[in-house]
Each structure stands twice: as C-alpha cells, then as structure tokens.
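We close this part of the discussion by returning to an individual protein. Part of our work consisted of pairing the sequence of a single chain with a tokenised description of its backbone. What the numbers capture is local backbone geometry rather than side-chain detail. The amino acid sequence and the backbone structure tokens for this protein are reproduced below.
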Amino acid sequence: MKQLNITTPVLIAKYEEVPAVERQLIDEARRISAQAYAPYSNFSVGAAILLSSGKIVTGANQENVAYPSGTCAERVAAFYAHAHFPDDKFVTIAIAAFHSDGEELSQPISPCGNCRQALLEYENLFNSKIKVLLVGKEYIHIISSISDLLPLSFSHL
C-alpha cells in the first residue's frame, strides 16, 4: 500500500504586491459582486476572468428560490466568456465575496466543487493553466492552476 500526499501551493500577497493587470481583475471582481442577486444567502460573489485577448469578462452569483437552480459567479463569468469568445483562453480568474452589509470578507473564499470542475473543463479544453486569485479584504491567495484546487479530478478524456 502507498500513501499519496497532495499539496496545493498558495502564494499570499497584499493587493499592492500583485501586478497591475491582476489588480484590475481584482477590482472588477469586487465591483461586479454588487450585481449579485443573493436574497437567500445574503452572500454576494463577483468573478472576473482575464481572457487571452486581453478582454475581461465578469459575473456575479444569481440565486433562485428553487434551490439549487442558481448559479455561482465563477460559472456565470465562465459560461458567458466561452459563449461569446470561444477562441479566447482563460488566463486568470479573480473571485471576491461580500456580506449583505457590503463588507468584504476578510479571508479569501474558494470556488465550490461545481465551479472547480466547470473551470477545470476550460483549463483542459485549452490545455492551458488558469491562474486563480482568491480575494480577501486583507490578502489575496494566488494559485497557479485550477487543477491545484481540484486534485484527483474527474475527467472522461
């Protein structure tokens, strides 16, 4: 019998320490979170994806009383991006979250399993890593690839 140890390398940075293009992505994720429709969870999430063309596509979570038919911010942004710009690779995604009172979460949040799997599909489709910026009020967690967030992932390929 063997043991498999899985680790996820995470860089921790302050906003000022990340490159300007990533700060712009973070700003967009924070901004779009205000467009969330979250009357049930009172938890607003914004996601911004930088595409290989330089375009930035955003999305905010959209809830529905017929739970679980709502959609997370990450998938709103990803599905829109691929539907409208199918040839553009996803380069980086930034994710930010706020409480209903408008206060940003002090600690970064990570995508749910459903979003991790959906984003991994795009990483696999383009055979290109998607950098992840998990945004908190004080720090940003930087992960080099979606696959680092979903080790031992399911794939039919």
Q: What stands out?
A: The chain has four helices and six strands. The CA atoms of residues 108 and 136 lie 4 Å apart. The two ends are 27 Å apart (CA to CA).
